[in-house]
């Protein structure tokens, strides 16, 4: 019963993250109001990664609730290879990588912005977004290929029907995934310390650092949430899997909460995003009102004998 309650929470929070992140992604990439705000593009990348992660949690909750009636049986097992290709395992395997990769990418972008502001603006207007997407795809493919090669070497055994990610991937691939996230987020934390130092130096020498502060603080808050919700739990789980492994589901929940925190950070810190969302909602409501009014007028103008 405890497992089912936690899965209901997975479904509820995963759905909420989807309902809040998808409008953010649409506004950042497709709204004409934010078309000139190119620095928001990588924030949109973080939203996409968090959305992919939330999809994995949503599928995990739905699947485990659907098989919960069989979970108590001793025969409720599946081959490890079968579990690996369950939608929630694939979603979380991809989401674990994308969230850490995007965290590292946006941090590198901020490093480039504070150390080379002139070149950063030039690249941001021309090729930086494309370069970031290409780098993301390359790293993700390399990570997936590395994981797949490790999967072929793991011993396939029968595991619980819930298909927990840790058991579905196997100890070797799970360790690879943890180290991958630990490395990316750890480097991001170290780079952000360098960013903070550079911004302080710029403020002391009377250079204009204000235009970097808002996005830099937003990225910093995202890195802090990744530090406490992903890096520290991953590190503890990697160093002491036997004792911490039994709490792995709560570790997953921390990762989902990180996605939720990011959504609120973006909304609260960036007024332009809120305004763009309000404009779209206002235009949509006006369109619906106009359509309803026209329909009412047409009905009133119909001959009474019809």
From TrEMBL:
It is found in: Cell membrane. The chain crosses the membrane at residues 6-30, 42-63, 94-116, 128-151, 171-195, 215-237, 249-268. Its main location: membrane. One of its GO terms (cellular component) is plasma membrane. InterPro entries: 7TM_GPCR_Srsx, GPCR_Rhodpsn, GPCR_Rhodpsn_7TM. Gene3D superfamilies: Rhodopsin 7-helix transmembrane proteins (1.20.1070.10). Keywords: Cell membrane, G-protein coupled receptor, Glycoprotein, Membrane, Receptor, Transducer, Transmembrane, Transmembrane helix. The keyword Transmembrane applies. It is a multi-pass membrane protein. One of its GO terms (molecular function) is G protein-coupled receptor activity. PANTHER family: ADENOSINE RECEPTOR, ISOFORM A, OLFACTORY RECEPTOR AND ADENOSINE RECEPTOR. This is G-protein coupled receptors family 1 profile domain-containing protein. It comes from Steinernema carpocapsae (Entomopathogenic nematode).
């Amino acid at each position: 019963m405890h497992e089912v309650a936690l899965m209901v929470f997975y479904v509820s929070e995963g759905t909420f993250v989807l309902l809040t992140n998808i409008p953010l992604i649409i506004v950042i990439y497709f709204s004409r109001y934010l078309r000139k705000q190119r620095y928001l593009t990588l924030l949109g990348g973080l939203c996409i990664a968090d959305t992919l992660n939330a999809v994995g949690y949503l599928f995990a909750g739905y699947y485990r609730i659907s098989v919960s009636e069989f979970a108590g049986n001793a025969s409720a097992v599946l081959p490890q290879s079968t579990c690996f290709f369950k939608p929630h395992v694939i979603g979380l395997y991809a989401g674990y990588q994308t969230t850490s990769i995007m965290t590292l990418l946006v941090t590198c972008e901020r490093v480039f912005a504070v150390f080379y502001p002139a070149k950063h603006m030039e690249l941001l207007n021309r090729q930086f977004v494309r370069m970031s997407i290409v780098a993301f795809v390359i790293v993700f493919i390399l990570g997936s290929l590395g994981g797949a090669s490790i999967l072929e070497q793991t011993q396939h055994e029968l595991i619980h029907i819930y298909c927990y990610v840790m058991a579905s991937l196997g100890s070797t691939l799970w360790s690879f995934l943890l180290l991958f996230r630990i490395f990316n987020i750890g480097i991001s934390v170290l780079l952000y310390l360098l960013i903070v130092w550079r911004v302080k130096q710029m403020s002391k020498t009377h250079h204009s650092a204000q235009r970097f502060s808002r996005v830099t603080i937003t990225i910093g808050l995202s890195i802090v949430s990744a530090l406490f919700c992903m890096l520290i739990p991953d590190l503890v789980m990697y160093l002491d899997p036997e004792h911490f492994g039994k709490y792995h589901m709560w570790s997953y929940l921390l990762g989902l909460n990180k996605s939720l925190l990011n959504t609120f950070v973006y909304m609260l810190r960036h007024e332009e995003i809120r305004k763009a969302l309000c404009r779209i909602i206002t235009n949509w409501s006006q369109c619906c009102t106009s359509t309803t009014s026209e329909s009412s007028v047409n009905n009133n103008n119909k001959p009474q004998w019809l």
